[in-house]
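pinging the channel bc i need a second pair of eyes. not urgent but kinda urgent?? the chain im working w is below, pasted from the shared doc
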Amino acid sequence: MDPGFFDKPTPITLERIAVVTGAVIADPTQTDRLVHGVAPLDLAGPDDVTYLDNRRLADALAGTRAAACFIAERDVLLAPQSTVVLVTASPDRAFAILTGYFYPASLRPMPIQGDDGVSPGAHIADSVRLEANVTVEAGAVVGPGAEIGSGTLIAAGAVIGAGVKIGRECSIGPGASLIHALIGNRVVAHPGVRVGQDGFGYVPGSSGHLKIPQIGRVIIQDDVEIGANTTIDRGSNRDTMIGEGTKIDNQVQIGHNVVIGRHCLIAGKVGISGSVRMGDFVMIGGGAGIRDHVVVGNGVKIAAAAAVHSNVPDGETWAGYPAVQIDRFYRQMRTLQRLVRGENARGSAGAKDRENDE
């Protein structure tokens, strides 16, 4: 039986793991112990490395069979004696680093056909400029004047529009389309991504809705990752921009003229309306929505399913529908619960009075 889609890693010692991740081996006599892979607490075997990042999983840690475990210093005593402790300030980060070390092919989409170079089945305009080591798979279409940097993958069925510029070491997934766009280095666009199509803009009128021409671009900086079936509209009269290091989940909608800062995290099914401006290191939970022209400050956190209707100052956390600052949201919830309990109490008292009357 095929064990999986990624090659089995070469076993390495715990000493090598300490070098790769920066963790400290609690028992120096175990530095030469070999491990073969990684696994979660409940599935790890005697050749695997696992991690604990939440004390609520202490029972799972107690029962793990793992050879070693990344763990914070405060939780070291929770580990079973059979498991070597790898002390680190950030167990989940160390585990992610090790997983990438073991399975480097998982860090970036690979060619569907498994071949490098330009496929005879690709459709590439004569004026396209390709640097060395570009892979263009069968069924991909690259329009006139496009430029693609070295080491970039254009997967099967992808469409690259006329004049689009794509940097180096990028991965454009199967069926993705990029038009009216300038793309930086090491950008990943997963299958079905749509970048640069018309934004949604119309002037309403009694005789019909007049389309507003969308003449801007999409500019995506280095190290951005875009999840499957996410859509990023081009600007109407200015550019839509995604800052470096930002990571966007699947099925996110980003409207025209939106500016997103650096190193933001945007979870699935978020909707960002036109002309929103977001700062750096913003985190948005799944299903949240942001209305047009809102300004979201640096370091803001927006809870899942929140509806943001007004500007959010730097560093604040907002939740609710409509969204408000988190302390205010909790006060609202507590007040609502008291009102509900009061109504229930009055309802029960009224029922007893009616029983007594009868």
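so The CA atoms of residues 161 and 179 lie 4 Å apart. and The helical segments are 14-21, 58-62, 91-102, 326-357. — does that match what u expected or am i reading it wrong
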